[in-house]
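Let us begin with a simple case.
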Amino acid sequence: MWNIDSWTKELRLGAWRFFSRDWVSAKEDKTYQHILDTRHATAAITSNAQKAIVDHVKENPSEPLFLYVAYTAAHSPVQPMPRHTEVCKDIPHQWRRDFCGMVVGIDEGVKNLTQTIRDSLGPNTS
C-alpha cells in the first residue's frame, strides 16, 4: 500500500519501508529542487498553486495559464489539520471525523485558490 504522510511527506510502501521524505518544486524548464516542507500537504499544495498564479500574472500577463492542482487529500493516511476537525467535531466515529477534516481542508484550499484567481486574473478566466 502506498501512503504519503501529510506532514513529513514520507512515501511509504508497506509498514517499514519508505522512499523519500521531501517535496519537489518543479519548474516549466524541467528543473526541479528537492525541499523539506513541514507544512501540511494540503496547505503546501494550495500555497504553491497560489504562488504559481501570482507569478504567472507578473511574468506573463498576456499568456494563458493552465494549472492542474491535485490534492493528496483525502487519501490515506487520513491526517487532517487539527483546525479542520473542529468543524467535524459532532461526528462520533474518529476515522469519519478525520476524513471530514481532510475534505474541509480541500474545501478551504479550493476557496483560497478561487479567491487568488479572482484577485489576480479578474474576469479573465474560463
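The second case is a distinct protein. As before, the sequence precedes its C-alpha cells.
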Amino acid sequence: MALHVHKDMSDALDAREIAREFVPSAGEKAFVYLYGGKGNDTLDGLRKTKFCNKVAKNSTTVEVNSLSPTTDATKYHSFRVYCQVQEWMGNWGWCLRKG
C-alpha cells in the first residue's frame, strides 16, 4: 500500500494541471497511511477510533494533538503543499511587478 500511496501523492504534486478533487484525496490517502490506517479508512474514522481508544484506556484528558488531523484540515494542507511544489518547480507562483 505504501508504494501506491506515495505514487498517487507524487503524481498529484507533480502534475501542472490536475483535477481539483484529486489533490485532497491523494493527501488524505497519504495521511491515512502515516497514521496507520488501511486502504478504505478515512482520517475522520481513524480520529474517532483513536479518540475512543484513548478515552477507554485513560482517566486523563485526551490531547487533541495526539489525534490524526481531520479530513478538512488535510484538504487545505494538501492544497498548500501542491501550491508550494508547483512554485518550486517553476510552474507558477507570485511575482512582484512595478506598477
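The first helix runs from residue 2 to 14. The chain has four helices and no strands.
Keep these points in mind for the review questions at the end of the chapter.
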